[in-house]
């Protein structure tokens, strides 16, 4: 079926789906914390955006960390404005599944979030994560400002050395500025809280970094 196609290559502006001018509806409050999903966030709260495969499990990894104010799932790094989940599954929007993390840097550092990112998935798989195949599952760090950019690139280089020593290949994670973050549909937000028995390959029991936490 057309809408289930898993494209490995990214679309161009000419081939991307047109999307729509208005955001798609989503939840107002975080299902776990009850805090506003889209802000406004308290003074001092910073944001980070990560993509590391199926966003259900990725989001749970981050909302459990002390110092994380709120999380949300959505779509980034694509061409189609305000895409739907069904559209990104075609591979014709260019987006990847991502998690927005609003955090208190006085409690948890950006470097600690990067550690969770690298050690929570396999960043060497290109347009896939485990059995999930397609451009929407690619790995990415989407930074805000020079300090996040430098931290992301420094951490990538350090983990690349460890992966190479362990016999693994090149990190394929894209590192680029944060662009528009399009919030995913209501039912995707905090999915594994609403559906405790739901499966996701990146959920603490599935795909993880091949060098392991703390290796």
UniProtKB/TrEMBL annotation:
GO terms for cellular component: cytoplasm. Its EC number is 1.8.4.11. The active site is at residue 54. Residues 47-200 form the Peptide methionine sulphoxide reductase MsrA domain. InterPro entries: Met_Sox_Rdtase_MsrA_dom, Met_Sox_Rdtase_MsrA_sf, MsrA_MetSO_reductase. Pfam families: PMSR (PF01625). It is an enzyme of class 1 (oxidoreductase). GO terms for molecular function: L-methionine:thioredoxin-disulfide S-oxidoreductase activity; peptide-methionine (S)-S-oxide reductase activity. Keywords: Oxidoreductase. One of its GO terms (biological process) is cellular response to oxidative stress. It catalyses: [thioredoxin]-disulfide + L-methionine + H2O = L-methionine (S)-S-oxide + [thioredoxin]-dithiol; L-methionyl-[protein] + [thioredoxin]-disulfide + H2O = L-methionyl-(S)-S-oxide-[protein] + [thioredoxin]-dithiol. Has an important function as a repair enzyme for proteins that have been inactivated by oxidation. Catalyzes the reversible oxidation-reduction of methionine sulfoxide in proteins to methionine. HAMAP family: MsrA. Belongs to the MsrA Met sulfoxide reductase family. This is Peptide methionine sulfoxide reductase MsrA. The lineage of its organism: Bacteria, Pseudomonadati, Pseudomonadota, Alphaproteobacteria, Rhodobacterales. The gene is msrA.
């Amino acid at each position: 079926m057309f809408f289930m196609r898993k494209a490995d290559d990214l679309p161009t502006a000419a081939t991307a789906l047109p999307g729509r001018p208005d955001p798609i509806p989503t939840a107002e409050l975080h299902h776990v914390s009850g805090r506003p999903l889209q802000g406004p966030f308290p003074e001092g709260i910073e944001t980070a955006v990560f993509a590391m495969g199926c966003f259900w499990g990725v989001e749970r990894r981050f909302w459990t960390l002390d110092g994380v104010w709120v999380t949300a799932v959505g779509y980034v790094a694509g061409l189609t404005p305000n895409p739907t989940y069904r559209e990104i599954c075609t591979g014709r929007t260019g987006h990847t599944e991502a998690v927005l993390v609003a955090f208190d840097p006085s409690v948890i550092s950006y470097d600690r979030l990067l550690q969770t990112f690298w050690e929570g998935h396999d960043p060497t798989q290109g347009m896939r994560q485990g059995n999930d195949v397609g451009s929407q599952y690619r790995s990415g760090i989407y930074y805000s400002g020079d300090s996040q950019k430098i931290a992301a690139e420094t951490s990538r280089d350090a983990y690349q050395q460890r992966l190479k020593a362990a016999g693994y290949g090149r990190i394929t994670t894209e590192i680029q500025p944060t662009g528009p973050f399009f919030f995913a549909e209501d039912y995707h937000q905090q999915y594994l809280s609403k559906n405790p028995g739901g499966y996701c390959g990146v959920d603490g029991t599935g795909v993880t970094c091949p060098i392991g936490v703390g290796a």
